[in-house]
Design goal:
heterodimer; A: about 50 residues; mainly alpha; elongated; B: about 180 residues; two-stranded antiparallel ribbon; about 65% helix
């Protein structure tokens, strides 16, 4: 799950290498959306403060 | 020698991508050499650097376009938000920190500075309109510097897929990883 943004960005870079600019930008947008979803999922990670 | 408008832009983009490559390499060195395993938010910051560097990579491959700079700015803004979240987690005195400090600051603080510099750098490069008005077509053949920067960036993006898979498996990462799951 956590490797999904990297996978999508790597696919986008591969598409760019093959001169597929539209597909490349599509993969980038998908990767960014997944990144934001994962950030939301980890937004409330524990804060280890001894109060 | 820089003779055509836009060549300077390609050179600066190549140097920018090398800077992103360097940050991602430092993160790997910290993980593999100093055994400092990245937390989930740290991994997302790495993804932020890849998202931001993506626009620079497209500038090198297709020539500079405002949309590519926009991708870099958006990616860096997302990355900066993630880094800021981690800074705020540890901003309370005596609340501890995560990972090793490098030159007095933790990697998430350096990451935030890096993202802000990427936003400022992209905005400054956007000021040069001559790079977008170039009449000559962009050559598909990259010089050594842009090619090295680009190939290294792709290798680091793929390397992060395997590193994250080893660390987190197929699901979510533990909040404070103590070892590799695979």
């Amino acid at each position: 799950m956590m490797s999904l943004p990297f996978l999508l960005f790597a696919c986008g870079l591969g598409a760019a290498w093959l001169s597929q600019r539209g597909a490349s930008m599509g993969f980038w947008i998908a990767g960014l959306v997944v990144l934001l979803v994962l950030f939301r999922a980890h937004f409330g990670d524990a804060l280890n403060i001894a109060l | 020698m820089i003779t055509v408008p836009g060549d300077l832009s390609r050179l600066l983009n190549a140097l920018g991508l090398i800077a992103v490559d360097t940050l991602l390499v430092i993160a790997f060195v910290d993980q593999l050499w100093f055994r400092d395993l990245p937390c989930p938010i740290c991994i997302l910051q790495r993804a932020g650097f890849v998202a931001a560097g993506f626009g620079i990579a497209l500038n090198l491959l297709f020539g500079p376009r405002p949309s590519h700079y926009g991708m870099t700015i958006v990616g860096a803004a997302v990355g900066a938000a993630i880094a800021m979240r981690q800074i705020l987690l540890h901003i309370v005195p005596d609340s501890g920190s995560y990972g090793n400090a490098v030159f007095g600051m933790h990697l998430y603080t350096w990451a935030f500075i890096g993202f802000v510099l990427m936003i400022i750098g992209s905005a400054v490069l956007l000021l040069d309109d001559r790079q977008f008005a170039r009449s000559e077509p962009w050559s598909n053949r990259l010089d050594v510097l842009p090619l090295t920067a680009l190939v290294t960036f792709i290798v680091l993006a793929v390397g992060n897929i395997f590193s994250t898979l080893l660390l987190c498996g197929a699901g979510f990462c533990p909040e404070a990883p103590t070892g590799y799951l695979i």
